[in-house]
UniProtKB/TrEMBL annotation, chains A, B, C:
Gene3D superfamilies: Aspartate/ornithine carbamoyltransferase (3.40.50.1370). NCBIfam families: PRK04523.1. Residues 186-307 form the Aspartate/ornithine carbamoyltransferase Asp/Orn-binding domain. One of its GO terms (molecular function) is N-acetylornithine carbamoyltransferase activity. Pathway: Amino-acid biosynthesis; L-arginine biosynthesis. This is N-succinylornithine carbamoyltransferase. Pfam families: OTCace, OTCace_N. Catalyzes the transfer of the carbamoyl group from carbamoyl phosphate to the delta-amino group of N(2)-succinyl-L-ornithine to produce N(2)-succinyl-L-citrulline. Is essential for arginine biosynthesis. The keyword Amino-acid biosynthesis applies. Homotrimer. N(2)-succinyl-L-ornithine binds at E144, H178, K238, R275. It comes from the Bacteria. The keyword S-adenosyl-L-methionine does not apply.
Length: 314, 314, 314
C-alpha cells in the first residue's frame, strides 16, 4: 500500500509486512537511491532531537533525497496555530501560510512538535500536526507529536522481530522513574505497535501512571513490576508523566528503576536518550542484553521505509 | 547579461527579460542542474528566515549546487565591521577576515542582515552588505539587507506578470499596520521593481510613513487608501516603520488594515510572514485572490535565475 | 599509511609526505570525489565555529561525502561524560549512548569540544574526545579539543611549506594579548607540527605564559619578543591563557601585540578569528606578508587529506 502521510502507527496497514520490507532495506540500504533524486525532505524541529535528526536525514540520503533541516524557533519565528486570532502578540506567522509555503520547497515535510503537558485537550487534539496536514500540500511525516512517535514505534517492532526466534515472545512496557515530566508519545506508539503484532504484550506502571485508556484498550496493566516481568523476553523501559493528573510527576523514587536483577535474561529496550541509574542501571545498559544501539540503528530503516512508501506515492 | 553580484533591483538590466527567463526556469527547474555541480553556496544569516532559507537552498539544489547554511550569531561569533577598531569588546572577528575566509569555501555567498532601524545613516550606508562585497572574493547575493530585498522584488515582478492579462495593470503598494518596527527593504525593492515594469504603480501610506524620496522618485503617493485602491488590479500590502521619524512606529490602529471590502476583486500580495487580522484580515488571505503562496513559490525561481546568471559568469 | 582516528599531530606518521599529499589535493580537489560517495560525515559542535564548520564540510563535499552538521547544545541536549553517575541533573544522555548512536548514522564523526579552562586535570584528560573514541564505532576527527587542534596544525605546516624557498626557515610562535581566556590547543598543535618539520622553531611568550612543558620539550622559549623575532621568516601569533596559573589572563597590556615594526619582512600567520589591534595591528594583517587567508584556504585541504586517509581505511 502506498502512503499519503505517516502520523501514527495506525497508518501501518500490515505491520508484519512493513517489518519485512524494512529489513530488506536494511540489508541493502542504497537499493532505491534514485527514488528520491531531486526531491527535498524538509525537517522542521520545534524541539531538540539527536536520533531523529540524524536518522531521518540518513534515510533521506539513502534514498537520494536532499534533506533541509530547520529549527523552527531558532531559525525562523513563532508560528500561530489558532484560527481567527488578531496576531498582535508574539507569533509572527500563521500555520496556514507556513505550511503552504514550506510545501513549495519540499516534496515531503517531517515535523517534530512536543506536547505542552499542561493542556491535555489541546495536546490530544494534535493541533500542530493536524494543522500541518491540513495546510500543507505535500505528505507529512510525524517525527514525534504530542501523543505519538510512530517512527520509533515502527523501529521497535522491527527490533523485536530481529531479536527473537519465538513465535510469540512476551513483551513488557515498563514505566521507569525520571526527574522531569515527559510525554506519552513513545509509550503510546509502542503500545499501538505491540497490539498489532503477534506478541504477548503487557504494561507495568505504578498506580497513577496509567496511560490513556483509549490507547491501552484491553492490554493487561500490572501495578506490580515484578509480576509483570515474569518470563518476559523483552522489557521496554520508558518514563512518562501522569496521564490522569495530566503532565505531573507524582513519583520519583527509584524502586521502579530497571535493574539486572529484575529483568534477568530479558532483552532491554529504550528509545533513548536515557538517564543512567535513574531509568535503568548501568549493569543493564552495559550488558549484551541491551538493544538500545540496535534500536537507534533501525530508526534509519523505519524512516527509510516510510519515505520510500511516500515517494512511491508522490 | 551575466551577473557579478545581486544586491538590488538595479542589478536587473531588463526586468521583462528576466521575468521570461525565470518563467522558463519554473517550467523546467532541473534543466540546468549540472551548472552548479561541485559548487558551493554559503548562506549566511545574521537574522531569522524561513522562505529565504528554504527557497534559496532549493534554488541551489535545482542547479546542482551544494548549499551550506550558517547562522552567523549562533554558529560562529560577533563580526566587527568598523575599520581601525581596537577589537577588545564583544566582536571577535573582523569582516575583512570573515568575508575573505568564507570566500575560500564558497563559490557564491548569500547574506541576510537586517537594519538596526536606530541609525539611519549607518543603515543606509549598507555597511554589512558593502563590506562583504568589498572583502569577499566571490559573488554575493543579497538575501535582504538594510534597505533592499531584491530576491523578493524580482519574485513579485514575476508573480504580477504571471497573474495578469492586462497590458498595463494597476498595482498599489499599501502600508498596513503592525505592532513592531519593520524595515523598508521589501517596500523599497517592490517600488524599484514596479518602476521598471510597464504597470500603473502607486503607493498608499499614512502621513508620516513616506518611504525614502530617492526610492519613491516620481511615483504617486496617496495618503487616502480608498482613493489609491480605485481600479487596482493588485494590492501589495506591507508594513514599514517610519522613514522620516526613523524606525519609529507612529501608528498602530487598524484603519489601514487590508480588508475584502477595500480591495474588492484586486489580487492580494504580501511577502510573508504576515500577521493575520493586523496587516490583513482572514477573508482576504483565505480568498482565491490571495497570491501569497504563489509568491513564496516564485522565490525559488527568482533565486535560481540569479544564481544561474552568477554561475554562468564564474 | 591509512588512518583510524585523527586526534593530534602525533597521528601524522611523516609530515613532509602529508604536506605533499595535501598539496596534490589542492591542485586537483575533485580528483577523489567518488571516494566518499554514500558516506556520511557527522560534524558535532559543542562550541562555535566558522572556518572549521565550512572547511570541513567543503572537504567532505570534495570527496563526495554527505556532511550532516549538529550543534550539540542547541540541537540536542546535555551529554554526560562521567561513568557511574546517577543522571538526575542537567545532562540527559550519556556519551556511551550518544557516541554509539551517532556511529549508526555516520561513517566518520568529527567533534569540536573546547576545554573548561577551569579544571586542568579534566581538560588534559581529553575526556570528551577520548569518550567519543572509546564509545564510537567509527573513525573520529578532532575539530579542536581541549589540548589540540590538529587540523589547524597540519594546515599551518602546509602553509609554511608553500610559502618558503628556504631549506630551513626560522619560525616563531609568539604569544599575543587578548581580552579573554583562550585555550592552548592551537599553540600546542602548531608546536607539535613545527617540531616534526625541518625548521628552526622557537617560542616567544611573557613570563607566566609558558606552555605545557610536555609540549614544549626542548624547544627554545624566549621571554624577550624582540630577541625571538630576529631573522624570523614566519611569525605565528596566538593568544593563550596561562598554563601555569591555569586558564587565567595575567597580562592584557598591548606591548606584546604584533606590529609591522616588530616583524619586518617575516610572513605573518594566525589561525583566525583574530582581534585586530589587540593581537596584531591592522598594518600587518593588511600587508602582503599576512598569510591568514591562505591558511584558511588550506584548512579545506588538510581536512580533505585526513578524511581521504580515513575513508581509504574504512
Amino acid at each position: 500500500m502506498s502512503l499519503k502521510n505517516y502520523t501514527s502507527i495506525n497508518d501501518i496497514d500490515h505491520i508484519e509486512t512493513w517489518i519485512q520490507e524494512a529489513l530488506m532495506i536494511k540489508s541493502n540500504p542504497l537499493k532505491n537511491n534514485e527514488l528520491g533524486k531531486n526531491k527535498t525532505l524538509g525537517l522542521l524541529f520545534f524541539n531538540s532531537s539527536l536520533r531523529t535528526r540524524l536518522s531521518t536525514q540518513k534515510a533521506a540520503l539513502n534514498l537520494g533525497m536532499n534533506p533541509i533541516v530547520m529549527n523552527v524557533s531558532g531559525d525562523a519565528w513563532g508560528i500561530e496555530f489558532e484560527d481567527g486570532t488578531v496576531m498582535n502578540g508574539s507569533t509572527a506567522e500563521h500555520i496556514k501560510e507556513a505550511a503552504a509555503v514550506v510545501s513549495q520547497y519540499c516534496d515531503v515535510i517531517a515535523v517534530r512538535a512536543f506536547p505542552s503537558l499542561t493542556d491535555k485537550i489541546k495536546d490530544e487534539s494534535e493541533h500542530i500536526l493536524k494543522s500541518f496536514i491540513k495546510y500543507a500540500s505535500v505528505p507529512l511525516v510525524n517525527m514525534e507529536s504530542s501523543t505519538s512517535h510512530p517512527l520509533q514505534g515502527l523501529t521497535d517492532a522491527i527490533t523485536i522481530k530481529e531479536n527473537t526466534t519465538k513465535k510469540r515472545p512476551k513483551v513488557v512496557l515498563s514505566w521507569a522513574p525520571h526527574v522531569k515530566a515527559l510525554p506519552h508519545a513513545v509509550a503510546n506508539s509502542f503500545t499501538n505497535a505491540m497490539q498489532k503484532m503477534d506478541v504477548e504484550f503487557v504494561i507495568a506502571n505504578p498506580k497513577g501512571y496509567n496511560l490513556n485508556p483509549e490507547i491501552v484498550k484491553d492490554t493487561l496493566v500490572y501495578h506490580d513490576q515484578k509480576e509483570a516481568f515474569k518470563n518476559a523476553d523483552f522489557v521496554y523501559a520508558k518514563n512518562w508523566s501522569s496521564y490522569e493528573d495530566y503532565g505531573k510527576v507524582v513519583k520519583t523514587d527509584l524502586d521502579w528503576m530497571i535493574t539486572k536483577d529484575k529483568i534477568g535474561a530479558a532483552k532491554f529496550m529504550h528509545c533513548l536518550p536515557v538517564r543512567r541509574n535513574v531509568v535503568v542501571e548501568d549493569a543493564v545498559l552495559d550488558s549484551e542484553n541491551a538493544l538500545v544501539t540496535e534500536q537507534a540503528n533501525n530508526r534509519t530503516f523505519a524512516a527509510q521505509l516510510v519515505l520510500k512508501k511516500i515517494l512511491e506515492n508522490v
